[in-house]
Design a protein that fits this description.
alpha/beta; Nucleotidyltransferase, domain 5; 2 domains; five-stranded mixed beta sheet; about 40% helix; globular; binds 5'-O-[(R)-(carboxyoxy)(hydroxy)phosphoryl]adenosine; binds zinc ion
Length: about 350
């Protein structure tokens, strides 16, 4: 039973697991009533990456006022909210704690159920927020700066991790390539732009793990090869960018093909995470899906990158599936730096490095 007992409950979602502070109000009928997101890019830029302590402090400063602003924008008060959902992991623990404690305080003050959400579940279910016709089971490629996984999404709370990365995430590989080529941060869009003017066949680069039986990813060797190509002085930056992007794409297609063989029957191929913004990647996956008679679903970018609407929506899905205990999750529930979506997945070499 849905403990809110409302026909169209409203869930307030909070996300704070990395460098985005976000709050959203989402109704069960998929309306995103209001949302706010604050990126901390500027605060971390001088350090060339996310500094956990700075991230946690920034979440402390912005989350409270953000909740107020989102409620105000929606013309609502806490009394109009039926449940509070927050990311409880995996992620940078300081930030996760800030979001979770904010949610606990709201749940307590408003006497509303708390729903603790696995951030990866937020990503996994977000395509269903954008597309009501997307049914389980589907194959999900989740590729961002922090995650690189292929999941068989069988139902709410029922995920099988088919593949993960043994070293870097795909977005991380784009970011490192951008750094090597002096393109700045975040690197993905810059590499994609530069690649448009380059020759993808100019630089011989490896396709790590392509053809291997396990569908896992590896991008560390590709990054090293990009560095060597740059240092050799033999290639134009645009050619390196284009060759890198092609190699990364080839890896993703090869691994997705292998993952699909290992998955049960699925009706759709879904891509989420920041790297889903890459147009050649989307086009290649769309063709791949069409060849196999699968639907291809890529949610709008706002839902692909870290956001709170996906956390609120995961809360809605959990309520509807009867997975939220009467009165909500206990208020002493802990934030978790590591929290695998599929606890039965076998560990792989290097696992635990990436969420
Ligand atoms: O999901 P996201 O916003 O944040 C997390 O990492 O959780 O993903 C950001 C990642 C970065 O690594 C960024 O370089 C990559 O997504 N990215 C792209 C593109 N746009 C963003 N990678 C390749 N091509 C793009 N157009
Ligand atoms: Zn994420």
């Amino acid at each position: 039973m849905d403990p809110t007992g409302k026909p169209n409950p409203v869930v307030l979602g909070i996300e704070s697991s990395c460098d985005e502070s976000a709050v959203a109000l989402v109704a069960a009928d998929r309306t995103i009533i209001a949302q706010a997101i604050a990126s901390q890019d500027e605060a971390h830029r001088p350090y060339g990456g996310v500094v956990p302590e700075i991230a946690a402090r920034a979440h402390v400063e912005v989350l409270g006022p953000m909740v107020e602003r989102v409620l105000e924008e929606a013309g609502m008060t806490l009394a109009d909210v039926d449940a509070i959902a927050a990311t409880a992991g995996p992620g940078l623990i300081g930030g996760v704690m800030v979001g979770l404690v904010t949610a606990k305080a709201l749940a307590m003050a408003g006497d509303r159920p708390l729903i603790s959400i696995n951030h990866l579940e937020g990503h996994a279910l977000s395509p269903r927020l954008a597309d009501a016709s997307l049914e389980f089971p589907y194959l999900l490629l989740l590729a961002s700066g922090g995650h690189c996984q292929i999941l068989e999404v069988r139902g709410v709370g029922d995920y099988r991790r088919i593949a993960t990365t043994i070293d870097d995430a795909l977005g991380e590989a784009f970011d490192k390539t951008a750094k090597i080529l002096g393109l700045g941060y975040p690197g993905g869009p810059a590499v994609e732009r530069l690649a448009e003017t380059g020759d993808a066949k100019a630089v011989p680069l490896p396709r790590p793990l392509a053809g291997s039986a396990e569908p896992h990813f590896s991008f560390a060797g590709l990054k090293s090869a990009v560095l060597r190509a740059q240092q050799s002085g033999k290639y134009a930056a645009a050619d390196i960018a284009a060759s890198f992007q092609q190699a990364a794409l080839d890896c993703v297609l090869d691994r997705t093909r292998r993952a699909l063989e290992g998955a049960g029957a699925v009706g759709a191929l879904v891509v989420a995470g920041g790297v889903a913004a890459n147009k050649p990647l989307r086009a290649a996956l769309e063709d791949f899906a069409a060849e196999r008679g699968l639907r291809f679903v890529a949610p709008p970018m706002k839902l692909c990158t870290d956001n709170a609407a996906m956390i609120a929506w995961a809360g809605q899905e959990r309520l509807a599936a009867g997975l939220v205990p009467e009165g909500g999750d206990p208020l002493d529930i802990a934030a978790r730096p590591r929290w695998p979506l599929d606890p039965d997945a076998e560990p792989v070499r290097g696992a635990g490095v990436k969420a």
